[in-house]
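Researcher: Re-running this chain for the archive, since the previous output was lost when a drive failed. Same request as before.
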Amino acid sequence: MSESQRIDCTKCSFYYVTWDPQLPKGCKAFGFKTKTMPSTAVLSSSGRPCMNFELKERLR
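Model: Regenerated C-alpha cells:
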C-alpha cells in the first residue's frame, strides 16, 4: 500500500485512544486495542486494507 493510500485512523469515526499504556490505540468497529495504528494491524493480519473506515462527522 502506498503512502497516498494509507488509511489515517485518526480521521475515522471508529478510532479511539485507550487508557491502556500498553495498547494505546483502538478500533470500535473491529473491537480491539493495539500499539500500532489499527489500520496497520488490520492490513498485517488480513492482507487487505481496512474496509470499515468512516470519515468522522466533523471532518465531512
